[in-house]
Design goal:
It holds the Pfam family NAPRTase. Helix content is 35%, strand content 20%. It is α/β, with parallel strands linked by helices.
């Protein structure tokens, strides 16, 4: 049984999320309050009409962050002072006492989604649900885009260590969320210390070109001095950056300074495959057979896949990860699908929605491979039984405005995705263009 519990996040206590929204959400609220429609019971759903070009699956991410943000969606005096500039007094007073009191169901964070998957169902009055649209979409669209890209990178890496190091390539707060999403998707660590503090993501770091360049005198560069300083401070298990000058000389100097027990060397430029082979051979010849090779520098899932045959021990990924590797948003939308039990739907060209509240099942073969996703009306019997390998995808997240006790943690969500990647049909892990890895069937038999 799901027991409701109040959300609490002492890390950001008192920080309102109420203005992380668009102005028209509140003007529509004002109009609804004025014409008496604000308190009609409604169902909203979040879904993606399609996957980003070239993708075969998406990963739901950001749910835990969303639940934290929901509790902080409160209009205090500073927030009311802003909205009072364009809202009438009645609406301002309504916002003063706003608390979401409805229900939310959703796919588990870390689960897959496909075109049309109703990954979040929000139910309550129109007034209390409509003003959450921007907050919900901004979190889910960003985090799901990053997690989806990261999962492809993790699959391409084939079990090798992955470090997220993209903080300097995105907004400072987006960097924290990206680190969390990458960890959820299977990355092992992040360079971002705020992500380590806020989300308990393991942190890691290597070394900087600036430190090597710092050790320059009137007689020229002194790479050995830089390496000695780093090893003296951090021990021989550290990772030395060997490509500031000549990489062959850098490797030779690194082993001479640290000895054959050197923890690792990092290559950040050049033809990484060719260089990794050369460096591995050189390290082995110098007796540093256990020294790891870390590569970084404009890596994405395709570059990582191309390095699968090379002697690379770990990857550091930055820009491509925090920008969704070409798909910086998941393209999710938040649509009203039911009003007082009446199905409603948008019919705009290329932007149509399916009316009525929905549930979703995933059908799995006895071997564990996913066969299809089935979406059906919430008030109807499930079209596929548990005996036939079907499991419900939507779980309770919020009841009467409070997060249920069983809402998944980041570590639990990480485990969900790890298990899920094993259950995808093999073609779903391919990086080439193709159809969705899993067909989505609506209860009437249509596919989307």
């Amino acid at each position: 049984m799901c027991v409701p519990t109040q959300i609490s996040d002492i890390r950001d206590a008192g920080a309102s999320t109420a203005l992380l929204t668009d102005q028209y959400e509140l003007t529509m609220l004002s109009a609804a309050l004025a014409d008496g429609s604000a308190f009609r019971n409604c169902s909203f759903e979040v879904f993606a009409r399609r996957l980003p070009d070239g993708r075969r699956y998406g990963v739901v991410a950001g749910t835990e962050r969303l639940l934290d943000a929901l509790e902080q969606f409160r209009f205090g005096e500073p927030e009311l002072a802003i909205v009072a500039k364009f809202l009438d007094d009645t609406t301002v007073e309504w916002l003063r006492n706003y608390r979401f009191s409805g229900d939310i169901d959703g796919y588990r964070e870390g689960d897959f989604y496909f075109p049309g998957s109703p990954i979040l169902s929000v139910r309550g009055t129109f007034a209390e649900c409509v003003i959450l649209e921007t907050l919900i979409l901004s979190i889910l669209n960003h985090d799901s885009a990053i997690a989806s890209a990261a999962a492809r990178m993790v699959s391409a890496a084939g079990g090798r260590r992955m470090i997220e190091m993209g903080s300097r390539r995105t907004h400072e707060q987006a960097a924290v969320a990206a680190s969390r999403a990458a960890y959820l998707a299977g990355f092992d660590a992040t360079s971002n210390l705020e992500a380590a503090r806020r989300h308990d993501v393991p942190s890691a770091g290597t070394s900087a070109h600036a430190f090597t360049l710092l050790h320059t005198t009137e007689d020229g560069p002194d790479e050995a001095a830089a390496f000695r300083g780093q090893v003296a401070a951090l021990g021989v298990s550290t990772t030395l950056l060997v490509d500031t000058y000549d990489i062959t000389e850098g490797v030779k100097t690194a082993v001479a300074v640290a000895g054959p027990e050197l923890g690792g060397v990092r290559i950040d430029s050049g033809d990484l495959g060719v260089l990794a082979r050369q460096v591995r051979q050189q390290l082995d010849d110098l007796g540093a057979t256990k020294t790891r090779i870390v590569v970084s520098g404009d890596l994405d899932e395709y570059a990582i896949a191309a390095l699968r045959a090379e002697p690379v021990d770990s990857y550091g990924v930055g820009t491509s990860l925090v920008t969704g590797s070409g798909a910086p948003t998941a393209g999710m939308v938040y649509k009203l699908v039911e009003v007082d039990g009446i199905a409603v739907e948008k019919r705009s060209t290329n932007k149509a929605s399916r009316g009525g509240a929905k549930k979703a099942l995933r059908v799995v073969r006895p071997t564990g491979t996913i066969v299809e996703e089935v979406i059906y009306p919430a008030g109807s019997p499930a079209p596929v039984s548990e005996a036939d390998g079907a499991t419900e995808l939507l779980i309770p997240l919020v009841r009467e405005g409070k997060v249920v006790e069983s809402a998944p943690t980041l570590e639990e969500s990480r485990a969900v995705l790890k298990a899920g990647l094993v259950s995808l049909p093999w073609e779903g892990l391919k990086l080439s263009r193709g159809d969705s890895a899993v067909p989505v069937r609506f209860s009437g038999g249509e596919h989307q």
